[in-house]
Amino acid sequence: MSTPLMKAVRIYEYGGTDVLKHEEIPVPRVRPTEVLVRVKACALNHLDLWIRQGLPRVKTLPHILGTDIAGEIAEIGSECWRLKPGQRVLLAPALSCRQCEQCLSGEDNQCVRYGLLGSAYPGGNAEYIAVPEWAAIPIPDHLPFEQAAATPLVFLTAWHMLFDRARMKAGEDVLVLAASSGVGMAAIQIAKLFHCRVIATAGGDAKMAKATALGADFVIDHYKQDISAEVRNITDKRGVDIVFEHVGAATWQKSNESLARNGRLVTCGITTGYDVKLDLRPLFGRQQALLGSFMGNLRDLFGALRFVFSGQLKPVVDTVFPLAEIAAAHQRIEDKAQFGKVVVIP
Ligand SMILES: [Zn+2]
Questions:
Q1: How many CA atoms lie within 13 A of 208 on its CB side?
Q2: For residues 41 and 187, what is the distance between their CA atoms, to the nearest angstrom?
Q3: DSSP readout, 186-202?
Q4: What is the pLDDT of residues 311-343, one digit of tens each?
């Protein structure tokens, strides 16, 4: 019997968009506890671009990118009992051992075996992917696959940052950097849903208008305006309770200057660089906190999904490309042309 084949995009080396190779490879075989998912949509993240460029490097090449995946159950392993073929699902963006103390205490993103699909494991830039049954989460019929794929990584990350790390409370002022990014659009909506006042930043009138449409109370043009000066104006010099950072070097100083007494700066990324300066005086004098955050646990994912499924949180899809045009999808993110998630469909 011949092995069934699927279309996939793999990288054999690191570099520009020309290293994304379209090919036919065997459909993965499912282990007894795994399900085979027919990928219907896969959203891109900055991580896809970074891995393509070789930072970080993956364990083995060739490699399939793609962390945010939605699709249909095509086949179930012999020991699976929860899911049925044909069910619509999205996938948890990272796998963990489900056996260690961290996993069993609900802190799976601290598991030593924690690894992302499309990074530590093969990803969703293919027609099929095999994952453990627990990682496939049923989605309601009304949620399109493109939106389901645009959800997991950014909503889980934003949820973890705001609640688990920064301990956001109703009524607080939250500054969200770069509203047009996936985590930015998620954070604005989550903070508004929990009755906070949101100041967002965006570059240019079109993106500013979209940030307002997402619910931001104030929007600062981060190319033209001084972020911390505007924050001081808006908050009557008090500053914000939470700064939601992921931009890194370009905004770090302004982000710190925007913090109120007792303010918490929480960061999950370094899109513009990691080498920053820190003035320790306000850190102790104004009793501020700097918090790092990496992905989120399954509790965060389910916490956010409840509101995505009810329509109270809306994943924003920027553009949808066929998988065959994945180079153009990467380019759109490299050009910072997107607002929300760029999605490919195999
Ligand atoms: Zn574990």
A1: 12
A2: 22
A3: HHHHHHHHTT-EEEEEE
A4: 999 999 999 999 999 999 999 999 989 999 999
Determine the Cα angle at 36 with ends 34 and 42, to 5°. 120
Contact assessment for residue 130 and residue 71, using Cβ atoms and an 8 Å cutoff: no
Please give the DSSP secondary-structure letter assigned to residue 95.
E
Q: How far is the CA of 99 from the centre of ligand 1 (A)?
A: 5
114 DSSP 8-state letter: -
**Cα of 267 from ligand 1 centre, angstroms:** 24
Alpha-carbon distances, residue 248 vs 85, 177, 184, 245, 271 (angstroms):
43, 10, 14, 7, 6
User: 8: Cβ–Cβ under 8 A, 6 or more apart, which residues?
Assistant: 22, 23, 24, 25, 64, 125, 126, 127
Output the CA 56–ligand 1 centroid distance in Å.
Answer: 22
Whether residue 260 contacts residue 240, with contact meaning beta carbons closer than 8 Å, is answered with: yes
Residue pair 323/346 in contact (Cβ under 8 Å)? The answer is yes
| Structure-block tokens of residue 56 | 């970080």
135 C-alpha to ligand 1 centroid (Å): 14
Distance CA 312, CA 228 (A): 30
Distance in angstroms (rounded) separating the CA atoms of residues 346 and 344: 7
Q: What is the pLDDT of residues 13-71, one digit of tens each?
A: 999 999 999 999 999 999 999 999 999 999 999 999 999 999 888 989 999 999 999 99
Q: Could you tell me the distance, in angstroms and rounded to a whole number, from the CA of residue 130 to the centre of ligand 1?
A: 19
Sequence-distant (6+) residues with CB within 8 A of 36 are 27, 28, 30, 73, 74, 75, 76, 128, 129, 130
Length of the chain equals: 346
